[in-house]
Write a structure and sequence with these properties.
Layout: E1 2-7, H1 13-24, E2 27-30, H2 31-40, H3 44-55, H4 61-74, E3 81-84, H5 90-103, E4 107-113, H6 116-130, H7 133-136, H8 138-161, E5 165-169, H9 174-187
The structure holds adenosine monophosphate.
Length: 188
């Protein structure tokens, strides 16, 4: 079964995704990472994608859905996928659910809980280390946080209503969060 990992920026989602993938043999699809690769390509599409990322706004629907659809269909059915950063709004959820149903992939979700203010603090700290332009500017970070609260939270709520979501406290140490995540993955 595939896994969707949700969590506000700074929740430690990326770190935990890598640990889970290594132990449980998931292939990671990281929406932001895939889009950053396209942005770096210098193509016309890349320039469009870059402008949205730099602004802290969701890239247009057809672009991200094309990327995710390709990623899903190119993988063999028996390769489990860990989705990080998709779907991020209700429109994406609608199309994502349809693609997954069409190819016969089932999934559940984990929501890594963290207070937005703590997320902002953590990102401002990590920006110095990783050098991401969209992490260096507090206004852009706050815009990404609002997008999460306004657009992604309703997606999580909808999956919650379908009984697909396990919530994990993201405030603890990397090891403690991972232990809880592992339990959620193994118990499902
Ligand atoms: P992230 O690495 O998850 O923080 O994402 C970085 C940026 O990539 C976001 O601020 C958006 O501009 C873009 N992005 C990532 N995932 C999506 C998505 N599912 N839909 C649209 N844009 C996205």
């Amino acid at each position: 079964m595939d896994l969707l990992l949700f969590g506000i920026q700074g929740s430690g989602k990326g770190t935990q995704a890598k640990k889970l993938a290594a132990e449980f043999n998931y292939d990671i699809f990281e929406a932001g990472g895939e889009l950053r690769k396209i942005a770096a390509s210098g193509s016309e599409l890349g320039q469009t994608v870059k402008s949205y990322i730099d602004d802290g706004k969701l890239v247009p629907h057809p672009i991200i859905m094309q990327v995710v659809k390709e990623a899903i269909t190119k993988r063999p059915k028996d390769q489990k996928i860990l989705f990080d950063g998709i779907p991020r709004d209700e429109n994406q959820k609608k199309d994502f659910d349809a693609i997954m149903q069409e190819v016969g992939r089932d999934f559940r979700a984990i929501h890594l809980l963290l207070d937005p203010e703590e997320g902002v603090e953590r990102i401002l700290g990590r920006a110095k280390i990783e050098g991401r332009a969209d992490d260096a500017n507090e206004e852009i970070i706050r815009r990404r946080m609002s997008t999460f609260v306004e657009k992604t939270m309703p997606v999580i709520e909808a999956y919650k209503g379908q009984g697909k979501v396990v919530e994990v406290d993201g405030r603890k140490s990397v090891e403690a969060v991972y232990a809880a995540l592992k339990q959620a993955v193994e118990g499902a």
